[in-house]
Amino acid sequence: MEAQTFFRDSQLPEVLTGILGQQPDGHIFVLVDGTTDSPLLERFFRYAPDADYHPLFLGTDMEDCLPYSPYMAQISLRHMEFIQTCTWECSPIWFTSPIPMERQLDFWKSRLYTGLPDGRHLLFRYWNPKILGPFVQDTDPTVAQSFLRPVVNLITPHPIQRQFAYHTIQPSIEVRAIPGSWPFPESALKVFEQSFYQLQSREIENHLWANAPEIMEQVHPALVPIKINAGLECGLKLGLSRDDALCRFVECQMRWGDGFWQHEAFQSIWQQPDPGELFLAKLEIL
User: Fold this and answer.
1) Is residue 127 a contact partner of residue 55, using CB atoms and an 8 Å limit?
2) CA–CA separation, 72 vs 262, rounded Å?
């Protein structure tokens, strides 16, 4: 994998055009983060309404979150208006691959979760530039290559440089799109685990303000992140791994108290191997 280079916002159309010129069999794809309140997804649908796209949560255990989902889409140079709206401050992740989108979808869905050395499975938000950019920059090149198997070139926003970062991941002849689980290397975990949880905490806070503002208004602002992080830690220890289940767990703690999960209505749930779905189902009938 080659070292990253940087270029300005205004150069994005030129860079993408140049890549396609060098790779006649290549396609341009984007990963759009539709799990947050960013205007990016709305901008994508406005300026590239005819682009082929697919929500990556569709057909997975995260399907209930739709329409909130990461989206994969194929972009061509006819979508120049969308390309020109993207800056390092608000942009999808761009990548090229000779593999058609329909043959990549199962691969990217299989990468939604990563296995941790302690046996847990963590939602790996690779569609978020704040996660994928540092991951590619700071891990061993072979690790990035193994995770990004269909990718030839990768472009991510780089907030420190206030530009785009360009990476060559691997030659087109080496790309693959075979679905499969991916264990996060223990050597790289310490660099990213805290970032995962910080991002997850912010997303839960945004969800609570949008869906349960009456609860949030009763909590001192300085205590909000403390309560959310404590709830995340407790939920993970009880075996919850799905983001939607953890989010509802934190909401329940704020609504009913930290020890709500010890109530007899929930006791049998925590003895099951995968309590997330049972927990959400229980909340539906309460």
Assistant:
1) no
2) 40
Q: Which amino acid is at 180?
A: G
Which whole-number Å values give the CA distances from 64 to 120, 159, 181, 263, 275, in the listed order? 21, 32, 21, 26, 16
User: pLDDT at position 20, please?
Assistant: 84
Which tokens is 255 given? 């609504």
Q: Whats the size of the chain, residue-wise?
A: 286
Q: In angstroms, how far is CA 195 from the centroid of its own chain?
A: 12
Q: Which of 100, 104, 94, 97 is nearest to 132 (CA)?
A: 94
Give the start-to-end residue ranges of the domains of the chain: 5-184, 212-285
pTM for this predicted structure: 0.75
pLDDT value at residue 191: 64
Burial of residue 71 (CB within 10 Å: 0-12, 13-18, 19+) is buried
Cβ atoms 29, 75 nearer than 8 A: yes
Q: Residue 38 pLDDT > 70, yes or no?
A: yes
Q: What are phi and psi of 175, to 5 degrees?
A: -75, 150
CA–CA separation, 28 vs 143, rounded Å? 23
Burial (Cβ within 10 Å: 0-12, 13-18, ≥19) of residue 39 = exposed
Q: How far is CA 66 from CA 61, 107, 135, in A?
A: 11, 19, 26
Count of other CB atoms within 10 angstroms of residue 171: 8
* pLDDT surpassing 90 at residue 273: no
Amino acid of residue 47: Y
pLDDT over threshold 70, residue 237? yes
Q: Which of 48-52, 124-128, 164-168, 204-208 has the lowest mean pLDDT?
A: 204-208
Question: Residues 6 or more apart from 51 whose CB is under 8 A from it?
Answer: 44, 73, 74, 75, 76, 79, 82
CA separation for the pair 212, 193 (Å, rounded): 27
